[in-house]
Amino acid sequence: MAEQETQAEETENQPGIEELQERVAQLESQVAEMDTALNTSRQEAANNWDKYIRQVAEMDNFRKRQERMREDRVKRYKKELLEKVVAVMDNLERALNYQDSMNREGLQQGLRMVQWQLNEILRTEGLTPVPTVGQRFDPHIHEAVETVEDSDQPEGMVVEEIQKGYMMGEDMLRPARVKVSASRNEG
């Protein structure tokens, strides 16, 4: 009889089979929900990765397209500029071909016209000559190649231009090479 009592007590202390089955069902339900959530997360991760790869490819294509457009723009600009320069070269060639049949004044006039034509092209492209003679020496736009004693000019003034300088907008293309006045050393 003691055995029966201990079995009865054990049965009372153990959860019932129904309770265990209910708990197992709850756990299986939670596992199923977690499995569904995991599959959803995996699908979202795959979709996000796909979007990322597409964006990277799109940015690469955009960069390449912009580079091609820039190259085309530069090429078109060069072509337009060279067409203008070739027209000047044609006029210079004509002047040289007819130099024997022209008098000196006619040849000089033809060369001045070619020079004017070239200066107009450069001006329309934004190129302007650096002011020199009579200007105060500015190391940003002038390059002093010699100093000369000149009593007519104050010290530091440009008295002669050796080579023209040019600005392209606000940028220096080439400084003007000049002679600058210096004070006379008396003594």
Structural description of this entry:
There is one protein chain. The protein is an alpha+beta fold. The model has no long low-confidence stretch (mean pLDDT 88). The protein has a three-stranded antiparallel beta sheet with strand order 1-4-5. Strands 2-6-3 form a three-stranded mixed beta sheet, with no helix packed on it. The protein is built from three helices and six strands; from the N terminus they run H-H-H-E-E-E-E-E-E. Helix 2 packs antiparallel against helix 3.
Write a concise synopsis of the structure shown.
With 187 residues, this protein is an alpha+beta fold.
* Strand order in space, largest sheet: 1-4-5
Please indicate the percent range of residues in DSSP E strands (runs of 2 or more).
15-25%
Mean pLDDT: 88
Q: Count the strands?
A: 6
